[in-house]
From TrEMBL:
Keyword check for Glycoprotein: no
Identification of the protein by name: Pectate lyase
A Pfam family matched in the record: Pectate_lyase_4
GO biological process: one example: polysaccharide catabolic process
Ranges of residues in domain Pectate lyase: 81-290
Main localization (coarse): secreted
Gene Ontology CC, one term: extracellular region
Organism ancestry: Bacteria, Bacillati, Actinomycetota, Actinomycetes, Micromonosporales
Length: 354
């Protein structure tokens, strides 16, 4: 069933108490599409958290979401802060600096040709200069089995023509921020997050001219991902890409808010293998299957959706309970009606003055 401007939410009202303009939230509460909540310690969240703030968020120099969380011995995600700043213009120089020990701020200038996957190790900021920084022909792999890819920031870079993934967050990499990039025309996934990686934020990226956008979870037969893969997707533009926006296995929670979905031929989001997704404040336009619970040969996951906008799109599937994202971090949800304009104007390269 299609709707021109229908907003659907299948979850029951959350157990919120309004006090003098503040909302008291059960921080670790499970939000349900129909089940009971479990009471845990309280925190107080400003009720202004649902005001429009997209223009401000687009220019932020620190991440929102899971990459901001203090955990595993890290105080959020800082990348190469405190290390030397270098500018690279060749594939050889890029591979050299991203593989060095210690923190580095690596500025990518112009178009750099690489092949296969270049391994990025811990404490790196990889930042495109201006609006013309491009990595083509290959991709960046965060971490190897012997050298972790923790605390990495990738911003303001165009990725094209990768032989495998454009960006692969893997091998237990944690605290990663992927922000304001343009990803298209790869071979496999444009951005895959897998193999026990954790505390990742994907924000203000433009995904286009490709089929498989973003996978979370290695495979149905990799249960080591259970308890990991906490990822936030916000203010991304999934522009005519076919599927995986994201497709998720095992993770709980994955938080998907204020993204713009347009003309996604196969589906928008898929929750499988008992993953838990909170999907809120997004705008789906011409998406016949905006949210799937289970997909292909993968068993069903869990989805709670709230305050999304579906325009000429089908009905979302929902099921089960999901951990409330505010258990981990504060965040602001834009009015979903503003998402197409705000996201279109803010995503991709050349927006943040690097």
């Amino acid at each position: 069933m299609n709707s021109s401007t229908t907003t659907r939410s299948s979850s029951r009202p959350r157990p919120l108490t309004l006090v003098a303009g503040l909302v008291t939230v059960l921080v670790s509460t499970l939000i349900s599409a129909g089940g009971p909540a479990q009471a845990r310690p309280h925190t107080t969240v400003d009720d202004s958290s649902h005001r429009v703030a997209g223009a401000t968020n687009a220019l932020a120099d620190t991440p929102i979401g899971f990459a901001s969380v203090n955990a595993l011995g890290f105080n959020g995600t800082t990348g190469g802060a405190g290390g030397p700043t270098v500018t690279v213009t060749t594939g050889a120089a890029l591979e050299d600096y991203v593989g060095r020990a210690g923190p580095y701020v690596i500025r990518v200038s112009g178009r750099i040709q690489i092949s296969d996957m270049v391994t990025v190790v811990a404490n790196k900021s990889i930042l495109g200069v201006g609006s013309t920084a491009e990595i083509t022909g290959g991709g960046l792999q965060l971490g190897s089995t012997t050298r972790p890819g923790n605390n990495v920031i990738i911003r303001n870079i165009r990725f094209t023509g990768a032989e495998d993934d454009s960006i692969s967050v893997t091998n237990k990499a944690h605290h990663v921020w992927i922000d304001h990039n343009d990803l298209s025309d790869g071979y496999d996934g444009l951005l895959d997050i897998k193999r026990e990686s954790d505390y990742v934020t994907v924000s203000w990226n433009h995904f286009h001219h490709h089929s498989k956008s973003s996978l979370v979870g290695h495979s149905d037969n990799y249960p080591a991902d259970i308890g990991k893969l906490r990822v936030t997707y916000h203010h991304n533009f999934f522009d005519g890409t076919d599927q995986r926006h994201p497709r998720v296995r095992f993770a709980d929670p994955v938080h998907v808010f204020n993204n713009y979905y347009r003309n996604n031929a196969l589906y928008g989001i898929a929750s499988t293998e008992n993953a838990g997704l909170m999907v809120e404040g997004n705008y789906f336009e011409n998406v016949a299957h905006p949210i799937y619970v289970g997909y292909d040969k993968s068993g069903p996951g869990r989805v709670v959706e709230r305050n999304n906008r579906y325009v000429n799109s089908g009905a979302p599937q929902t099921a089960g309970t999901v951990v409330e994202p505010r258990t981990y971090y504060p965040y602001t949800v834009d009015d979903p009606a503003t998402v197409p304009a705000t996201v279109s104007a803010g995503v991709g390269v050349g927006r943040i003055g690097l």
